[in-house]
Write the structure tokens for this entry.
Amino acid sequence: MVMDYTAFQEPRGVMRILHFVFSICAFATITDYMGIVSFANSTYQIEFTYPYNIYSEVNLTNCTASIKNDFSSDARFFVATGVLAMLYALGIMLVYLKMDEIYKTNKNYPLYDFLATVFLAVLWLSSSAAWAHALTGLKSVTSHPTFKPSSVTNKCTEIVVTTSSYSQLNISVIFGFLNFFLWAADLWFLYKETAWFQGNAPPTTSGV
């Protein structure tokens, strides 16, 4: 079947390329991160990574430090949104390439494309907000571990706690909201392809 690149000379095609690229950026930044919590000048460490279901303890000199919290549901929601958005963007780009003439002549295709984009835009907004909230909690529990004396006679002296940079996870949140903006911005271009818009368009008049 002949490839038709016409759609990629229009905003709807260009936006799909951006959707594909930035969806990958969003879930890659969250899944590729590994954080480290260090105690007593890095002598003891706790590592955490995706999906951020953290239940770790480390035995220090006179006490036990623990970090226990589960942020996996919000993290997985965000990643699932990114993967779903990437797959849809890839699939619809193939439709644009191989079936663009059918897309333009069949009124159902643009409508389904528009509704799917609305759904994914809502997913990006909700998953990004959920992950941003979870990231705030993740920063809090990793920066303030729970200390428990190893015995009744011991006391936990003041222990220096340092954490690795959260910049990569902060960027993942930015990518999430950027994806929401990109998917929402594409709605106008897709709406113009639907029968709803074309039915409301004023008829063209020929000159006398």
